[in-house]
Amino acid sequence: MEPDDRGGEPDDPPGDVEPARPVPDAVSRRRALLGMGAVAGIAAVDVGGFAYAGGWLRPDALTPPRFADRFEHVYGRHDGFRRNHAKGLSAVGTFASTGAGAAICRAAVFRAGNVPLIGRFSLSGGLPDQADVSTTVRGLGLLFQGPDGQQWRTAMVNIPVFPDSTPQGFYDRLLASQPVPGTGKPDPEKMAAFLDRHPETVAALKVIKQAPPSAGFADSAFYGLNAFRFTNAAGATVPVRWAAVPQQSAGTPAPAGGKDYLFDDLIRVLSQRPLSWRLVLTVGEPGDPTNDATTPWPVSRRTVDAGTITVTAVHTEAPGNARDINFDPLVLPDGITASDDPLLAARSAVYARSFTRRAEEPKTPSAVDVSRVLR
Question: Which of 4, 152, 155, 335 would you call most buried, defined as having the most Cβ atoms within 10 angstroms of its Cβ?
Fold first, then answer.
């Protein structure tokens, strides 16, 4: 969830095409997708990020090309778009570091001062023209350009934990969440069987339900979900998770009902004033899980106010902006390394493969047009 060969945001992996399979009628498929329930919707949070890559899933169950083709069977093929988080807007802004983050991380981006950033707001799912729904998971990808030339990339979402702790668990839930023709909802027996086998997902969904979505993008908090390891100039290493906490209230909620109402509201607000989020680093302690994104850390953990993320403008996706950026979570500056979370390596590998697929496809104009809103 990019301008190099490292790949795209949450996309599904590319590869050789499977033999053709029957594809549902496009209208029926779209109705089924848009009618999926909350559990199924969460399944699309990062559907492209966790597939078979380097042996994480059974070779006889899934391969990158099969995963890509199955994903396209669900959403249809939309050339040039991300396989997940397909609907989005590019953004630009700055990160003003307080310097406090340097106490736990030697990355140059945490030195006091300002650095430019490129971002992308998005909705989960593979339909670039889907109608905005407040309960659809929202994404914020950021690329921080450090003063030393090193980049830090992160793909965040507006839920506080991830529903799965392993790539295999994600894959199993994805299959259980597939809508049944005629109802547009998951098969309740398959989902119940999945949840019986995965108590960690049941617990994560309870946490997610306790944090209902905000009115729009501007007042959404965004979470990095996975743990990373930060090392400071003295060589001390600590586990860290981070979140972007909004510094503006919701204001007057955008009227629901318009097809692009969430994005339209974001465009209008940013045409009048910048939007800001505080980058809050949470420092883990011994015993806090670093390999399980379904489990929140205690709220009593130490936090560091690392600085302010300010978005100054959004743009229709086009060549040269965030449309072509891969928000690979393992593009990290010196001072930040991956934890033992198995989701990270899977996300990185599949993002790169997915980017290759969409980079080779003809581009279709974005469904979200800034100029249309500001006329």
Answer: 155
Residues 117 and 35 in one domain: no
Angle at 356 between CA 351 and CA 362, to 5 degrees: 125
pLDDT of residue 25: 42
* In a shared domain, residues 54 and 194: no
Residue 54 in any domain: the answer is yes
Range of the domain at 45: 31-61
Q: Which amino acid is it at 308?
A: T
Q: What is the pLDDT of residue 353?
A: 75
> Helix, strand, or coil here: 207?
helix
Q: Is 351 annotated as a binding residue?
A: yes
Q: Residue 375: CB partners within 8 Å, gap ≥ 6?
A: none
Residue 57 binned pLDDT confidence (cut-offs 50, 70, 90): very low
Contacts for 82 with CB less than 8 Å, ≥ 6 apart: 1, 8, 9, 10, 11, 48, 88, 122, 126, 354, 358
Task: Choose the catalytic residue: 78, 85, 198, 315.
Answer: 85
Helix (H) or strand (E) holding 263: helix 261-270
Task: Mark whether 117 and 79 lie in a shared domain.
Answer: yes
Residue 235 belongs to a domain: yes
